[in-house]
Amino acid sequence: MTIVAKESSNPHSSPGTFREIPSVTDAVEHVSSVAAPTFSPSALIGLTQRVLACARGEIASGMPLTREVILQRIIDDLTAMERPRLAPLLNATGIIIHTNLGRAPVSAETAGAMTSAASSYVPLELDPKSNARGGRMNELSNLIQLLTGAEATLVVNNNAAAVLLTLSAIAFDKEVIVSRGEAVEIGGGFRIPDVMRQSGAVLVEVGATNRTYARDYQNAITARTAAILKVHQSNFRIEGFTAFAPIEELVEVGNAANIPVINDLGSGALLDVSQFGLASEPTIQQSIDTGVSIVTASGDKLFGGPQAGIICGEARFVREIERHPLARAVRADKTCLAGMAATLRHYLRDDAVERIPVWRMIAASETELRRRAEAIFSGLPRISESVKIVPSKATTGGGSLPGEEMQSWALSIGAVNGKPVHEVALALRKGQPRVFGRIHEDRLLLDLRTILPEDDQQLGEAIKAATAGH
Ligand SMILES: *Cc1c(COP(=O)(O)O)cnc(C)c1O
After folding, report:
1. Domain containing 186: what range?
2. What pTM was estimated for this model as a whole?
3. Residue 11 domain-assigned?
């Protein structure tokens, strides 16, 4: 919403002079009369002073500002600050786990569990039966054990924290063997060699970037070796002449030397994606089954829950990790734990594919996506030439299944009603709700795979609003 300042320029002044700058009192009074601000008087004064100071600087450097423009800036700043930035938006990018858009949206049940935990007291560390202290992880440990076979679980802030904490607790001042092809950057500044250094562990790289064999690990074992680390290649794929030792062989090497194998899975799926025609990605239970000592994974990638890091596996190692001082610094709060438990219950009830948004999106059939695109299209006014329905390719994104694409359908929008494509895209990003798509060959693509069916109508309305004439 734009509210235009009604006050006209001061007749005794001219643009670009300091006389154009209103007093704080005048400005606040004006803004209060036209914009019905919800901010407290002191916040409003603070915001006004900030805008006026900035205007003073601009006028000093020769900008032709007018009183009207300055007053409008205060109103614009106020309106922008009153609107929460992290409000729900429609992700039409076709990237399901979009890190910049907040990764996995959670199910309605999970969101409900998080809201009620947030707004009330919960028996977080008190056992209702005995009234004794402890048991913060009991519920999650139980659920994860049932689903994956892992003896014990610790949930922390995110997977980066899970890896850092695990290495700090198990390998401080000792050596960790990693394949050269896996000493990688996962994205957002998470580099295995840096995390390793931060944890105090010494990285021992083995093999070549494209090939690492079990014997490479075996030959690198010394008296100082604390662990073997296997990192899932979650955001890239090395193709061609490659070989990576299967995790089972690493477990054999580790067992023979009494050294734990840590498997950083990244994505942490509990369902096999290959049932939806995607390349197989190891699930947490498969990894535990191979006999690794510790698995680490994200809560908000294919797991489909809130931001979290899952550390699960052999109880003796999980206990050791739990006791490390860093564990307290990266621990998950009650909202996260309640959300993780609610998400896990979907897998236990076997309704994840119907209820968890990322799985609903992965499981949606191409026919269904096309039908929905057509239904939205038919609800649009006659802007026929500008909007088309086109096949598209969606991805899981966010550090899972690199290079894997899913067939999808999209609404493709070209220049319309005198608006070039980038203006339509901007109007959609600024709308309520905001809509993010992707530009491809000078068309804006709105991919249906990352839109849930219950949001189709909102998407249609948003397109109507953004494509309407000036
Ligand atoms: C995504 C990822 C991480 C980082 O997890 P966050 O939950 O983003 O902290 C670490 N390792 C792997 C292999 C990943 O894919």
Report:
1. 107-355
2. 0.92
3. no
